[in-house]
Amino acid sequence: MTEQHDDDRIRLDKWLWAARFYKTRTLAAEAIAGGKVQVNGDRAKRARPLQVGDEVRVRQGPYEHLIVVRALSERRGPASEAATLYEETPASREAREKLALQLKSVHSAFVPDRGRPTKKDRREINRLKGR
């Protein structure tokens, strides 16, 4: 699992890819450049060396993950192996679950009763408009 070659450090974009936060290293690099990733409270660059014990904040959509690096890997393995690379803080997990519940309840309130108008509905609308 720990496959680093330079003084127990690895590039941030490579670690985010290996930990399966992003599907490609390019997407990880774009997120870092866009300010969606912070390391130890500071905005980071893609080549920033990451080490065990660093605190990483990752924003993906409306969700924010606050994780602590537990292991380093340059290889993208299965999801079960990627889950051992980090540990999410309990406060972060609780906040994400609360936000998910809020988004789910808001979404259900704005679901329309029906979809697009049918042909019959359109004819009725045109008749009312005088066309």
How would you explain this protein's 3D organization?
- The structure is a single chain.
- The protein has 131 residues and is α+β, with helices and mostly antiparallel strands.
- The protein has a domain at 10-94: Structural Genomics Hypothetical 15.5 Kd Protein In mrcA-pckA Intergenic Region, Chain A, CATH 3.10.290.
- It contains 5 helices and 7 strands.
- The strands form 2 sheets. A 5-stranded antiparallel sheet has the order 3-2-5-6-7. The chain has a two-stranded antiparallel ribbon with strand order 1-4.
- The termini are far apart.
- The mean pLDDT is 88.
Summarize, please.
By secondary structure, this protein is of the alpha+beta class. 39% of the residues lie in helices and 19% in strands. The radius of gyration is 22 Å and the shape is elongated.
